[in-house]
Specification:
Strand order of the largest sheet: 1-2-3-4-5-6-7-8-9-12
Distance between the termini: 46 Å
CATH architecture: Beta Barrel
CATH superfamily: Calycin beta-barrel core domain
CATH class: Mainly Beta
Order of helices and strands: HEEEEEEEEEEEE
Shape: globular
Radius of gyration: 19 Å
Structural class: mainly beta
């Protein structure tokens, strides 16, 4: 590859990434519905209808981000997505109860990683052509498997169990 081709390839991918960042979350405004499957160590535990509503607000850089788990009495979670730095893909999910979760836009995915009561939780929203793939992984942080102790060049490695996985494919209503 010559120098011009290499520069063009880097420029092309930079333009695509910038367009993807600039289209989030506005391209995804609407109500999305599907079923969330909740899996534990023994398999599929339950399936629940759910929806995600993403709506503009009157404030720049803020969107209503509402999750509803359609149970006998709907479990409605009215959050707000807040743009911190669009260029770096840094957002926050404000739960409006003093809990604010950092989230990062990476490769068509909004990713949030946080801990609650010694559980590590990873929440992913993958934005594909006409679907949002929503996943949550959760597990105990108190009982990691520790390896790498014999290798002086690196710190110990801790891997954590996954006890629950939730996944849903949401389609626009």
């Amino acid at each position: 590859m010559n120098k011009f081709t290499i520069i063009f390839v880097f420029y092309f991918f930079a333009v695509i990434q910038t367009h993807a960042q600039n289209s989030f979350p506005d391209k995804w405004i609407g109500t999305w519905e599907g079923d969330i499957e909740i899996h534990n160590q023994t398999g599929l535990a339950t399936t629940i209808p759910m929806s995600l509503s993403i709506q503009k607000t009157d404030s720049a850089g803020r969107w209503d981000w509402t999750l509803i788990y359609h149970l006998e009495n709907d479990d409605k979670r009215e959050y707000e997505l807040v743009e911190i730095d669009r260029e770096t893909g840094h957002y926050q999910i404000d739960e409006k109860n003093s809990i604010i979760l950092d989230a990062y836009w990476r490769g068509q995915t909004l990713i949030s990683r946080f801990s609650v009561s010694n559980s590590l939780i990873i929440a992913n929203y993958h934005f594909w052509e006409e679907e949002i793939h929503f996943e949550i992984f959760a597990g105990d942080m108190a009982t990691p498997t520790i390896t790498g102790l014999e290798v002086k060049e690196i710190d110990k490695i801790q891997s954590f169990p996954i006890s629950v996985m939730q996944k849903a494919i949401l389609k626009k209503k």
